[in-house]
Amino acid sequence: MSSSTVNHPRSAILGLIGLMLVALNLRPALTSVGPLLRTIGDSLALSSTEQGVLTTLPVLFLGLAAPLAPRLARTLGIERAVLAVLLVLALALLVRPYTGVAGLFIGTVFAGGCIGIAGVLLPGLVKRDYPSHASLLTGVYTAALCLGAALAAGTSEPLRQLLTSDWRPALAFWLIPAVIAAIAWWAQLNGKQVPKEPASVPAKSLYRDKLAWQIAFYMGLQSSLAYTVFGWLPTILQDRGFDAVDAGLAVSVSIMAQVITAITAPWVASYMRDQRAMILLVMTLTLAGLGGSIYGRSEDVWIWVVALGLGQGGGFSMALTLLAIRARDADTAARLSSMAQSFGYSMAALGPLFLGVLHGMTGDWQVAGIFLMLVGLGAVVAGMGAGRNLYVLDD
Fold first, then answer.
1. 308 in a domain, yes or no?
2. Are 309 and 253 in contact (CB under 8 A)?
3. CA dihedral over 170, 175, 180, 185, signed as positive or negative
4. What is the pTM of this model?
5. Residue 198 forms part of a structural domain
6. Sign of torsion, CA 248 242 298 45?
7. Residue 169: which CATH number?
8. Is residue 138 in a domain?
9. 30-72: pLDDT as tens digits
10. How many domains does the chain have?
11. Among 88, 99, 102, which Cα is nearest to 29's?
12. What are the strands, taking DSSP E only, across 150-227?
């Protein structure tokens, strides 16, 4: 892809297909672990804390690796940087199930890092190559991301049962979509001149901007809830009496519900005076869904996981939308994206870890549920600041 993509319909279509295939691979490495977590833990004798670390590592490295994205883009060009990330992701997904405990954790680290880099690069491609359709494509890109997450959450346990009841090939299966995406991405780049990104010009630091920090905290706190759900909700539901397949299916249904609000929440919010009301609505749905899933009646869980999905899909898409609309130009938006995702995902990594520690200390999910409610309330507070109709770096 290049800046001329939009002038060539066939290239534009191939570019969109490539973007969607890459987006599909930005969550399976994370959501495929949760349904298999109990089996993995039993197989490798992992404690609750170690299982919490396993669910935390990819989220932590989403944040730690995000600042590498601009450097890779300047060195390789955005397109080749995405290709390199896909190849490393596929290798990490191949290695982590078959190299013992150390390989499981190291492979998970690399997978999380690759996803973090790609997550910063793709929005920049959308803004650069499709500027007049950036909002719509951001929603579609988010929907594809949710679809990939749902597929991995819903099919990993059935795959394990199908593949000789061994969790290793079921976990390794998710390298296949990464390889397909890499081939499709390489095919559209083959023989094409792609520019490297120019060196950035020093600008006023976002780290001294109050609004930028409110956006980063909102990104981090709502993401903390999301990755806690990816990693632990299947186990929570199993402890409530669901079998492993139904628990994974419930998470898959929840993530599929995210697709609805991932597209509609930013669209509806664009007709409002600012984004605070929409953020409050989606976070209320998120908290209600979480509370119902943990404390509500077991027979009502399917209602609560749908409410949870509607809330989280809208919450995440609103976070991505804020990265674009709170900046006056594309360069500031890119810097805000890097800052918010780096800090936000690093903070979000603490959610799954703390939940695992709390569960290990108490033996149930009651106290852990209170912790999640507090995280959600923090996201509401940050969102009320980030949702105001202001711009970062405005004095």
1. yes
2. yes
3. positive
4. 0.78
5. no
6. negative
7. 1.20.1250.20
8. yes
9. 889 888 988 999 999 998 778 878 888 888 898 889 888 888 8
10. 1
11. 88
12. none
